[in-house]
Design goal:
The complex is a heterodimer of chains A (about 140) and B (about 130).
Chain A (H helix, E strand, L loop, with lengths): L1 H29 L5 E2 L5 H7 L2 E7 L4 H16 L5 E6 L5 H5 L4 E2 L1 E6 L2 E7 L4 H9 L5
Parallel strand pairs in A: 1-3, 2-3
Antiparallel strand pairs in A: 2-5, 5-6
Chain B lengths: L2 H4 L6 E4 L8 H10 L5 E4 L5 E2 L2 E4 L11 E4 L3 H14 L3 E4 L6 H9 L3 E3 L3 E2 L11
Parallel strand pairs in B: 1-2, 1-5, 2-4, 5-6, 6-7
Antiparallel strand pairs in B: 3-4
Helix pairs in contact in B: 3-4
Chain lengths: ~140, ~130
């Protein structure tokens, strides 16, 4: 009798785990694996859509911006499901750059729950960026 | 060093490599900063005047000591600029990408000069609103 009860609760537990994993999988599927282009008019929507969003303000005329680009692509893949990376080209999109007082590029703005949580200015290698993002990833 | 320390409103700024050529960064940076900060000096031995402002031949000839020096010159020139900064007691140097060199950065590190070399000013097409 007891064994049957144990089996029943185990089944429930397994079902719960399955459901949770399925939910996590579906959520992860919705996270882009590459940095997404963000414009002034969809900026608020983007930063509010995911729990952690890192937005890169960049320009085609800026050599350090080109250096950081592949680093962010790698991080977007590695942190898939945990963080979303966006890119705002300040040559065209000036409103948000002005709103956040961007004076140098590349600048990464980190949004947690839609709120500004951090600002990282200038090119940095992957390990340095990852180190700075860790606290926002809950590590 | 925080980027905001380089660009505080009260800072005296010298743009080494300021130029009269509107296509060059030395022009864009000087034009933008001089429109925003009250005390910005153009430094370039080639010119006497840039945008109607007096242009100085070197850091030593400026009427006051800058808080921040921005270099928009070839790396070997920057290496001389950072040495002049040490002599004059200037503690912040922003090397516009392309003007930096390992030697110049190393010299700043060794001599306690705050150095920024991994970011560009937002100047092209962007106006005063950015330089708060």
């Amino acid at each position: 009798m007891k064994a049957a009860a144990d089996e029943g609760s185990m089944d429930e537990e397994i079902m719960e785990i399955r459901e949770r994993r399925m939910k996590e999988f579906m959520e992860k599927k919705e996270f882009p694996e590459k940095p997404i282009e963000v414009k002034d008019n969809d900026f608020d929507e983007t930063i509010g859509k995911y729990p952690l969003v890192v937005v890169d303000f960049w320009s085609v005329f800026c050599p350090p911006c080109r250096l950081i680009e592949p680093v962010l692509e790698e991080l977007a893949r590695e942190l898939h499901g945990r963080a979303v990376f966006g890119k705002v080209c300040v040559d065209q999109e000036r409103l948000m750059a002005s709103k956040f007082g961007i004076t140098a590029i590349p600048t990464l703005l980190v949004f947690r729950g839609g709120k500004l949580a951090d600002m990282i200015i200038g090119y940095a290698p992957k390990d340095v960026l990852l180190g700075k993002l860790k606290k926002h990833l809950g590590e | 060093m925080e980027v905001r320390n380089f660009l505080k409103g009260e800072n005296v700024i010298a743009v080494v490599g300021a130029t009269v050529n509107p296509e060059k960064w030395g022009y864009k940076i000087y034009k933008t900063l001089s429109g925003v900060f009250p005390r910005v000096y153009a430094v370039n031995p080639r010119y006497r005047e840039i945008l109607g402002d007096k242009c100085y031949p070197g850091l030593k000839s400026l009427p006051e000591r800058p808080d921040t020096v921005i270099t928009v010159v070839p790396p070997r020139v920057t290496e001389g600029v950072v040495k002049a900064c040490r002599e004059l007691g200037i503690r912040k140097v922003w090397m516009q990408p392309g003007s930096e060199s390992r030697e110049a950065i190393g010299f700043c590190d060794k001599n306690g000069i705050g150095c920024m070399s991994n970011a560009c000013f937002v100047v092209d097409g962007l106006k005063k609103g950015f330089m708060k």
